[in-house]
Amino acid sequence: MTKGGMESVELFTTEGKGRGLKAQKEFLPGDVIFAEPAYAAVVFDSLTHVICHTCFKRQERLHRCGQCKFAHYCDRTCQRAAWLNHKNECSAIKRHGKAPSENIRLAARILWKMEREGTGLSEGCLVPIEELQNHVDSFGEEEKKELRADVESFLEFWPPHCQQFGMQLISHIFGVISCNGFTLSDQRGLQAVGVGVFPNLCQANHDCWPNCTVVFNNGNHEAVRSMFHTQMRIELRALSKISPGDELTVSYVDFLSLSEERRAQLKRQYYFDCACEHCKKQLKDDLMLAVKAGESKPSADTVKEVIQLSKDTLEKINKARMEGHYHEVVKLCRDCLKKQEPVLGDTNIYLLRILSIASEVLSYLQMFEEAADYAKRMVDGYLKIYHPNNAQLGMAVMRAGVTHWHAGLIEAGHGLICKAYAILLITHGPSHPITKDLEVMRVQTEMELRMFQQNEFMYYKMREAALKNQKIQVMPEPSNENAPSLFHKKE
């Protein structure tokens, strides 16, 4: 079955897994399989004043809706584009006296769209909203309690003059949001800023080693070449060669966890048992649990002790990061690494997690040489574990490249930036803001490398002067959040 803009994919059903998507033609790495605008989307409660409610870009100055005083937009273009979806919300917020939570706002937007367009298939959708998976029957007591509270708040917010929907459909919509809400990120792709529902994306099944990735594209309202150029959408992109008839899969979780941990997370958040090859055969688990090889191989008790110490340290690090005590974070990382290094292998995930935090925080504190050493070791480990075209890998390699540049290690920095660029060209595409930024860095570091190779002394003199007006920015403050995960799930 194909429909509006979805000619390249086919919807199919299998026993046990339910619906899924298959390729109708061959795709190569980096190809966009389909792009899909949100059926409905909202900005997170905590960011409503700093994120545009239409394109989800972070902006310094936003225009506020003069009526409800709640919605914010980049400019008149975004405000006009939003009006169809904001019109009912605007009057409901004024009547209610305040804006409700993001879940209530998203459910309301979905139901207003159903009121406008009717039930059944919407244009471009393979499956009607009312047939999406909701998993309400699998909810635990706490989730059922939250669902009841959401339905109650929704009924208080929903205007009496609008079409009245049955309790079953309202509960279904909240179930869909809970297990199929997609995380929207800002234009840099580094922070989760909202949640949306994309009915076609929902049909792609999970695999821990997928052949596709999903990137959120904020659109460009200045370009008018086509519908997809003017509005934000998700893009499903091929990570490897895909043949006609192959199932299209995405990963709902980050791969950098043991198969048992990934399966537990998928069961808890998405209510299914992962049966992918990597989970069934526990592929890469040996790398993620690697210990030092050689004559003085550590005992099982020593390994167990160091892994427990690593887990305890990660908890202390999270607490220190939340409080902004970055020098304390560095001390915890250094102490932990001293204990880990004689015992854990270079690809052990507990070692890699500490190296990642240490390199990020030291970069922020501008202690670049030490940060670069840790970043290099982290990337070397990641390259042995991640899929070669994994977006998380690309971002980590990019961070390491910038850290090396700041440390004055121009050859290694340029090499890492080129490697990151090659990955992000496939995962994000050439027009994504982060890929464009990386292209500027690649050109700059290439020019500097040439200068360095011609005259090292002059290069460092010019670099010193240039740093006063540097283009490659100092690292942002370390985030306490992980990179945005694919689907939005309230923990």
Automatic annotation (TrEMBL):
UniProt catalytic activity: L-lysyl(4)-[histone H3] + 3 S-adenosyl-L-methionine = N(6),N(6),N(6)-trimethyl-L-lysyl(4)-[histone H3] + 3 S-adenosyl-L-homocysteine + 3 H(+)
Species this protein is from: Melospiza melodia (Song sparrow)
Keywords of this entry: Cytoplasm, DNA-binding, Metal-binding, Methyltransferase, Nucleus, Repressor, S-adenosyl-L-methionine, Transcription, Transcription regulation, Transferase, Zinc, Zinc-finger
GO biological process, one term: methylation
The keyword Nucleus belongs to this UniProt entry's keyword annotation: yes
A GO term from the CC aspect: nucleus
Pfam families: SET, zf-MYND
Tree of life domain: Eukaryota
InterPro entries: H3K4_H4K5_MeTrfase, SET_dom, SET_dom_sf, SMYD1_SET, TPR-like_helical_dom_sf, Znf_MYND
Location of the protein in the cell: Cytoplasm; Nucleus
Domain MYND-type per the UniProt entry, residue ranges: 52-90
Keyword Transit peptide: no
Name this protein carries in UniProt: [histone H3]-lysine(4) N-trimethyltransferase
